[in-house]
């Protein structure tokens, strides 16, 4: 166990601080010095030792989270702020918001809240996604809507790749493949990456072929699609704690859409096998909880534990920390970086369950204890 110092020993919430422990991913004992919210060379005069003997991890990343989204769509700004604080208190210090009806850019000015990289609002078709969640458009309007969302986001756009088609009674793609390819190309021209919600087989195959940058969920990936994603570096954020609810989703649709319900159960039954195959093939995989809507916030440790069922503990922690930060273009624990970190009481590469109880969470150099 690491040794901690209480708030009564702190000179002020901004430090300066001294932390010592094992730095991950390197796995070597080291000291970190924090001043003015940044990691700096030490020693620093007057620094207070705030953590000794723990495992120091770059702040967790939730790469599929919805701040500002509730069961019925948009929530108030106060509720959105509470969601972000809940995520922070679980150790999530960087969020890739995978679609929200609320513009949370004002949160960028609040140093107490996690950093957020936004994808604008979900893009879907009328009656082809959850009511109140998405910007709903008709076929032929996708390129223009991608332009709008690219300009309102922070370098990402989120489209809904498939959802139940009430006429077919089953999951089906929302977009013509050529229109999707044109929209993805336009996003790239604007400097944005595109990711897509995909449950079933057809949509993920079409969108990977169309040049998409990321896939959310990905339960319908075939071996050929997995190989294509690995070759192209298409990212996968499986949201495993959401996939665990597929049976419940199927039960809700059984009476009206039995084919859809059977399809969802089949996708859920084999999701670990499919995701493990993607990992083994070299598809880059990152942690995302799908918080917002039906999944609660602050559950990044649950997602890390779920990812450890398809790979090693180190793979799972890296998917929620240093590898995810690198993928999103954010720094780790080097000099000049913001002091966004989590201190754990044991080595998470041996037991991911320790991620559920951080001993210290530091965001922008300010300590937050659970």
From TrEMBL:
| Annotated EC | 3.-.-.-
Under InterPro entries, the record lists: Amidohydro-rel (IPR006680), Metal-dep_hydrolase_composite (IPR011059), Metal_Hydrolase (IPR032466), Metallo-dep_Hydrolase (IPR051781)
Q: Which UniProt keywords apply?
A: Hydrolase
- What domain of life does the native source organism fall in? Bacteria
> One GO molecular-function annotation for this sequence?
hydrolase activity, acting on carbon-nitrogen (but not peptide) bonds
Q: What class of enzyme is it?
A: hydrolase
Q: Give start and end of each Amidohydrolase-related domain.
A: 55-356
The protein in question is named Amidohydrolase family
* Native source species: Propionibacterium australiense
